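User: Show me an example of a complex going from sequences to structure tokens.

Assistant: Sure. Here are the input components:
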Amino acid sequence: MAAPSPASKPFVVVFGGEDFLLDRERMKARTWVGRQVVTVDGDGLADHELVELCRTGTFDESLRVVILDEANKVKGDKALKAYIKEKDENDIATILVAIVRSEKLPDVWAQAGKKGRIIERPKLKTWDRNNEVVKWIGEEAKRLGIRLAKGVDDTLFALVGHDLGRLAGEIQKLGLLVGRGNEASLDQLRLVLAPSPSAEAWQVAEAVADKDFRRAMNLLSTLYKSEGDDANVPIAYALMKQIEKLMVARFMFDSKMPEEDMASALGMHPFRFKNSLLPMVRKHSMPDLIKHMQKLASLDAGVKGSTRSKRTLVELAVLSIASVAA
Amino acid sequence: MFQSNPCAVSCFLKVKTVLDEVREQPEGVRFLRRIVERKFTNPLLLIGDEGVGRRFSVIQAVKEIYCTGTQAAGCRCFNCMQIDHGIHPDLMIVGPENGEVKVGPIRELVSASFNGPSVAPLKVFVIDGADKMNAASANAILKTLEEPPSTARFFLLAESAGKVIPTIKSRCGIVRYRPLSEPFIVSVLQRSDDDCTKALIIARMSEGSIGRAVQYMGAGRLAFRDKVFGFLRLALEKNVPGLFSSIDSIEKELPLALRFLEQIVHDIIMVSTSPIIHTDLAQEFGKMRVQREEEVWHQMLTSVRELREKIRSRVHLPFQVKNLFAQTFWV
């Protein structure tokens, strides 16, 4: 998008759930050579205002590009539809770049895309067998002109996570260290990477369900460091969901249901069920789970009530469920 | 005299006025009539369950004050029509947003109360949800309720006196609205549906609230009640996945489900001794009752009541309901 190609069209529609990649497309459009750039936000923008903006020419009749961020928040009423319909495919005096921050493309922008270009930037999957973020790390390194030694991409993902912004920054640092055209090794990666541990509420809940109280408490403290007391309610919620899931699984386990049927009833892959949930289920009996349920019901009321020491309540609940004696 | 005061005409001729449209709430009507006759100017706190006629009776009283026409039901004078359409400039009604009466609308109400009426003899302000005012909104109106402007009348509606803050309560005349009688609700329901048994069950389910009864009549609530009754069956069978998924499927309607559950458990306890609400399920209640000891049902009833009290504190209701069944039947 850096320079208008001969195949330039009046509309460029970029959509998807990967904000980093959408932002990158937006930045590319902002540096469009030879065009005056106007940036507007779709939040609170009326359709007729957008149409007027696209129709208004410049004083010196120079070419323009109008970048509409959050285009999914534009209503898409008659005025905009009529503008898209009437727009000549060869009229590229003003190019409208719509950044649609949603996985689904609204009809009005699909129509615009037919007269121009549609660029899809879906949320990258982080599945065990198909980790698109790891693939993206390789592509990003190639873009910056460095080669990655075996295992660097996986390690980078394991240490940084799925945040593409942070990953791009780390790859850039790696590029500066090794220099363009060279290969980055694992040791060099460790040199540039500033590890910052992160934790999420569901990880705490899984550690609790696994009765790994050391890990649970470590994750809990990491989570509190990053989120503060805002983490109380999400942790309580994650624990409740986990215990519910364990109860359902335990019931099916006690009923001697085949593993595959259990996995399908819980909406899980049989392999994942067998290796992650089933060992947890074996660690809890139904009477224990019912007791945990009561504790969590009190915790739920506690973290939403006026108790001062909500964090202590959460820690006590985590400890009492995760401890081996429970 | 009669020309200048239409109320006097109606009193003299003993004709029915709009306020007489309010049924079964003699205490409320008595107080409101005193306000209409300008013998009582203090703010009124109307306490009663939702749908027993608090708001309706206030509107009728306002019509009686504002009416420039016949003063009878169905009057089509300009003021009565504006009230019916909710656009009368001298009548302001404030209600809760997301379960809370916020301070913004209350401040607007207070400042409007110091301006004189536009077309009517008095300005009327109704706060529907005095028990849902937060501390800021209650404090914002306190002074005005203590010394209301002479041309303003205030009506505060609340479901429970206990939830209204004492400083507000002490500044108002308190009027209690009783639950409406079963025959009255049945007679109203039968205007739209001839099914006598259904009308009777719904009248009992509504617990004296005509608003609730009308809502239940039209919204397939008997089927919903059957679904709630199904929870008990699943719990007794100890069908964990079935019960949990059923509860999740009605997540948004769980407050109503708890109301029905309380009635059902109450009926199960009372099925052999006194009249019950859900008469059509009496046989099944009898069978279910013997499956557990009486203490279990009593514990269940207490727990349901406690949980209904907790709803306002925004607990995670689906989990709490699941826990309720687990603690009662599976321990």
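The lines above are the inputs; the final block is the predicted structure for all two components together. Chain B touches chain A through 18 residues (CB under 8 Å).
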